Amino acid sequence: MRFSIIVIIIFIIKIPFFAQDTILLKNDSLLYAANRQLYFVAGSKVILNKNNEVIEGSLLKNTYLWTGRRMLNFKAKKPVKFNENAIVVSGYLVENTQLWTAKQILTFSNSAKIKFNDKGLVTEGQLSVNENIIINGKKVSFRKLNKIVFDEFGNIRQGTINKKEQFLNSKGKLKTYKAGRCIYFDKDGKTL
């Protein structure tokens, strides 16, 4: 008897807490951080953490939220995701907005999900205008409205080029790429 109680106690203690999904039956105000609430859309899925705080859900109305760097206006009826400190890590912007990567300011589109690191710097999104980005000392034009990805240092890891370009590949060979091609880069700016 004593052994089974100990086993049960150990089993209960070892069970990890998982986020839980809930479908809202009506527009509802839910806690997304201690003493902070937001309204989420009826019929949408919200994901709650172990403290019953929303970590992901679709906003009822456009809402200004903190990204770790500044307040940004996020779209209604689109999913927004928070980290454990109630800072937005991804969502959809209401308007095209100039934001920082770890290296430069670029203008990002409101038509696609944007992702932030824990410092509020953009790691993924879509450019709203064609932008020049420096890769190994060379200005390269990247195409708007295509996915663009940066690493934690602001180096481009993925993007679609606007015109024919030549890059060194990971084997050290110079390779030519056509305009409109999505290019993947390693940490040193060489193509994969």
Structural description of this entry:
- With 192 residues, the protein is mainly beta.
- It is 7% helix and 45% strand.
- The chain has one helix at 2-14, and strands at 20-23, 28-33, 36-40, 45-48, 54-58, 63-66, 71-74, 79-82, 88-91, 97-100, 105-108, 114-116, 122-126, 131-135, 138-142, 147-150, 156-160, 165-168, 174-177, 182-184.
- The protein has a 10-stranded antiparallel β-sheet with strand order 1-4-5-8-9-12-13-16-17-20, with no helix packed on it.
- Strand 16 and strand 17 form a beta hairpin.
- It is elongated and about 55 Å long.
- The relative contact order is 0.09.
**Widest beta sheet: strand line-up:** 1-4-5-8-9-12-13-16-17-20
Which regions contain 5 or more consecutive residues with pLDDT less than 50?
1-17
Radius of gyration: 21 Å
Give the overall pLDDT as a whole number.
88
What overall geometry do the principal axes of the alpha carbons give? elongated
The count of β-strands is: 20
